[in-house]
Amino acid sequence: MTQTEKTAGSAPAPAPERADARGWAAVAAVAGATFTVVTSEMLPVGLLTPIGDSLNVSEGTAGLTLTVTGLVAAVSAPLLTPAFGRADRRMLLCVLMAVLTVGNLMAAWAPNFGVMMVARVLVGLGMGAVWAIAAGLAPRLVPAGSTGPATSLIFSGIAVASVLGVPAGTYIGELADWRMAFVVIGGLALAVLVALAMLLPPLPGEERTRLGGVMGLVRNPQVASGLLVVALLVTGHFAAYTYVRPVLEEVSDAEAGVIGTLLLVYGIAGVVGNFISGAGAGRSPRRTLLVITAVLAVTAALVPLIGGSVLVAGVLLVTWGLSYGGVSVATQTWLLASSPEAREAASSLFVGVFNGAIAAGALAGGLAADGIGTTAVMWLGCGLAAAAFAAVALGRAPETGRL
C-alpha cells in the first residue's frame, strides 16, 4: 500500500492501475521540479560572457551568479528541512516553486549586477529546499516495488538539468538574448508549480527532524565518506565547467554557435550517462564512482592538452558528459543507501554539500581564470577529481545502492 492510500482516510481505494498511474504522474511532476531548480541554478554557466558584458563585470565576477546561488542553497537546505516540521510537502513545494519563479524573472529584468545577485539568492532559497524534499518522496508516491525506478526518475531531473540546462540556456541566449533564457525558465517554474498542485496528493511530514539529527548523520562513516566524495568531485567539476565557454573560445577557437552545439552534445551524453550510472550505482556505488572520478580527471587534463580542434573538443565533451551525467544519481544513491531511515535529512545534507561545492568550484575557478589564466581551471578540476577518486577508493561505502 502506498502512502497515498494510507492517507486517504475512509475513502474507497482507487483501482490499482489508476493509483499506479497517478503515482507515476506525481513522480514525473517532482522530476520536473528537480529539473527546473537545477536548470535555474546552472543557467548562467553558458551565459557568463553576455551577462558580464551586459552588466559591466568580468567573467570571473559574473561567475558569482552561480557561487551565491550555491552558497544560499548549501546553507538553507539543512536549516529549512527541520524548520518545515510536519508541514504538507505538496504545499511547501508549490511555495518554493513560486519563489523560484520570482527569482528567475527578477534575474531577467536585472538592470545591474546587484539586482542580479538578489535574484540569484531567491533562486538558491527555492532550489535547495525543493531538492531536499523531492529526493525522498518516491516511496510515498508509488508502490514499494516501484520505489527504486521512481527514485531514479526523480534523480534524473537533477542529472538531466545538470547536463542539458546549460546548453539550453546557451541556445536561447544565442537565439534571443541572455535575459530571455531566464524568462523561459521562470515560465517553466510556474508550469511545474501548477503540475505539482494538481498531481501530488497531500504529503504531511512523516517525522519531525531536528537540526541536531540532521548534523548527527555525519557521524555515520558511510555518510561522511559520501559527503567528502561529493565535495571534492563537484567542486572540481564546477571549477572547470563553469568556465567551459571561455576555455573553448581560447583553446579551440570556437564561436558561440559552435559552443552551443558542443554543449548540447555534452548534454545528450550526460542523459545517457545518468541512466547507465543509475543502474550501476544500484549494484555498487563505489565501483560506479571510481569510474566516474577517473574519467573526469583524465578528461579535464586532456582539454587544454589536445582540445585545439573543435572535433577533439567535442569528443572530450561527450566523454565528460557521459561521466558527469552519473554523478548526482550515484552519489545520492550512496547517501540514501547509507541512511535509509532518514532519507529527507540525508538529502538535505547532500544538497548542502553539493551546492556548497558548486559555489566553491565556481569561486575557485573564477579566481584561477582571472589570476592565472583560463585554462588553469581545467588543471584545477583534474586535481580535485583525482582527489575524489582517492576518497571513493579509501572511504566507507554501502555494499549496494538498493534503496
Tell me what the structure shows.
- With 403 residues, the chain is mostly helical.
- The chain has a single domain (17-394), classed as MFS general substrate transporter like domains (Growth Hormone, Chain: A, Up-down Bundle), CATH 1.20.1250.20.
- 80% of the residues lie in helices and 0% in strands.
- It has 19 helices and no strands.
- It has helices spanning 3-6, 16-42, 48-55, 59-62, 64-84, 89-109, 113-134, 138-141, 147-175, 178-199, 211-216, 221-241, 244-251, 256-283, 285-306, 310-324, 327-338, 343-371, 376-394.
- The chain is globular and about 50 Å long.
Find the CATH superfamily.
MFS general substrate transporter like domains
Percentage of residues in strands: under 5%
- SS-derived structural category: mainly alpha
Structure summary, number of beta strands: 0
Per CATH, the class reads: Mainly Alpha
In whole angstroms, the N-to-C terminal distance is 17 Å
| SSE sequence, one letter per element | HHHHHHHHHHHHHHHHHHH
InterPro entries: MFS (IPR011701), MFS_dom (IPR020846), MFS_Efflux_Transporters (IPR050189), MFS_trans_sf (IPR036259)
Transmembrane segments: 21-40, 60-80, 92-111, 117-138, 150-172, 178-203, 223-244, 256-276, 288-306, 312-337, 349-369, 375-395
Protein name: MFS transporter
Subcellular location: Cell membrane
How do the helices and strands line up, and which of them pair or pack?
Blueprint (H helix, E strand, L loop, with lengths): L2 H4 L9 H27 L5 H8 L3 H4 L1 H21 L4 H21 L3 H22 L3 H4 L5 H29 L2 H22 L11 H6 L4 H21 L2 H8 L4 H28 L1 H22 L3 H15 L2 H12 L4 H29 L4 H19 L9
Helix pairs in contact: 2-7, 2-9, 2-10, 5-7, 5-18, 6-7, 6-10, 7-18, 9-10, 9-14, 9-17, 12-17, 12-18, 12-19, 14-15, 14-16, 14-17, 15-16, 15-17, 15-19, 18-19
InterPro entries: MFS, MFS_dom, MFS_Efflux_Transporters, MFS_trans_sf
Pfam family, one: MFS_1
Protein name: MFS transporter
